[in-house]
Amino acid sequence: MRQMIILLVGLALAIPGRAASASDIALDLTTSWVGFVSLGIFALAYTLVVLEEYIHLRKSKPVLLAAGLIWILIAVAYSAAGQSHAIEEGIRHNFLEYGELFFFLLVAMTYINAMIERGVFDELRNWLVKKGFGYRALFWLTGVLAFFISPVADNLTTALIMCAVVMTVGEGQPRFVGIACINIVVAANAGGAFSPFGDITTLMVWQKGIVEFHEFFSLFLPSVVNFVVPASLMHFALPGGKPQAVEVEGSALKYGGLVIVGLFLATIVTAVSFHNFLHIPPVYGMMLGLAYLKFYGFYLRRRSMSWTGHSENPPESDDGDPYHFDVFEKVADAEWDTLFFFYGVILAVGGLGFIGYLAFVSEFSYGNLGPTISNVLVGIMSAIVDNIPVMFAVLTMYPDMSHFQWLLVTLTAGVGGSLLSIGSAAGVALMGQARGQYTFFGHLKWTPAIALGYAASIWVHFLVNS
């Protein structure tokens, strides 16, 4: 067992192009005080993450601290064994994993912020409000839109936009708002499961090179089933009739909004092309796509200077200027707490893997229970613990399983968070946005229906992809 742990940890942390020396052999710290204290630190940090909504402590703080403390403990143990060099390589490996994810997400968040500032999503919301749809039609429309927008935008932004719609038209109907929010969370998570851009977990799997871009679309039918099954059951609990008409004046769309949408799509195509045809990590394609936005921002700046009559830099506020646009403001508005949270999670989980715990879990779970049961449990676990550390742990363990099983764990990690309101970023955000109408226990009431959709999506995956 000790040899297997050493082998798996070595494979997880191997750096291509460099043969391992005798001094780089991983130490088994799983039964040492270093291992036990590291587990306690991670458990405490993640408890604080789960309690974020109640104690109002940003989730990045405890995991950043935990990551640093865990690697300090590992460094002490390895220094005592005369293997300090292995620590540097282990940290660099995990930091590279994070670096690629960081810049990829930073570009995506910048584009999303630019589209929000240009009123793209507000215009979509206004269009839905003005159409005068009934409650049941709005329930399905917001769900379907969440399902198809989240593969391109992230599921959190998508859920917030659709929730704004149902809260606007569903004023005075808390039952409709609550059920519609549950549907939006399920739809956004399901839609994100069949696209590398839809969820952090799918992005990690794609960047790791385990699943190719086009192969994610084989999860489309299971994702549809995951959304449609609980939505069909919730449909019968919706109130009938139409909401009171809401007047919306003017257009929320600013100059250049649709152009930025096009540039974002071009950025996605660039990232995919870099990966598929040039065999360059997709993050480099995303950074090239950021140049598209920066050049268009320069064009808007020139238009703004003409509008305001300024020969130097335009004023910081728009003051009615339809061309005012600062790309660095959009970078600054990125979800920095989320980005630092990812750093803490990846380095902390990577540290536990370096100690040997992930190899131990891999041997116990995937070796004894088998890949199917283990991958189904990954989805259930992601409803309790965030799917990001769970998926990163699986990727670090890198169990020996078929391509079909890698698609299965991608599906379950993506949609499993819908089982509870706290299981995904979309659910947590909507509990704050629709406070008192979308609640933990309101979502829990429909967990059996969502679990039925979860099981049905796995069944469909076996049916169409085996």
Can you tell me about this structure?
The chain contains 22 helices and no strands. By secondary structure, the chain is an all-alpha fold. It is globular. It starts with a helix and ends with a helix. The N terminus is likely disordered.
- Count of helices? 22
User: Gyration radius, to the nearest Å?
Assistant: 23 Å
How much strand content do the residues show?
under 5%
List low-pLDDT spans: 1-23
Q: Which structural category do the helix and sheet elements fall into?
A: mainly alpha
Number of strands: 0
Q: Mean pLDDT, nearest integer?
A: 84
Major β-sheet profile: none
Order of helices and strands: HHHHHHHHHHHHHHHHHHHHHH
Report how far apart the termini are: 32 Å
Principal-axes geometry comes out as globular
Helix content: over 70%
Blueprint (SSEs and pairs):
Elements: H1 2-12, H2 33-50, H3 52-55, H4 60-80, H5 84-117, H6 120-130, H7 135-149, H8 155-169, H9 174-192, H10 200-207, H11 220-235, H12 257-276, H13 282-308, H14 327-332, H15 336-355, H16 357-369, H17 371-384, H18 387-397, H19 403-415, H20 425-433, H21 440-445, H22 447-465
Helix pairs in contact: 1-16, 2-4, 2-15, 4-5, 4-15, 5-12, 5-13, 5-15, 6-8, 7-8, 7-9, 7-11, 8-9, 8-20, 9-11, 10-18, 11-22, 12-13, 15-18, 16-17, 16-18, 17-18, 17-19, 18-19, 19-22
Give a short synopsis of this structure.
This protein has helices at 2-12, 33-50, 52-55, 60-80, 84-117, 120-130, 135-149, 155-169, 174-192, 200-207, 220-235, 257-276, 282-308, 327-332, 336-355, 357-369, 371-384, 387-397, 403-415, 425-433, 440-445, 447-465. With 466 residues, the protein is mainly alpha-helical.
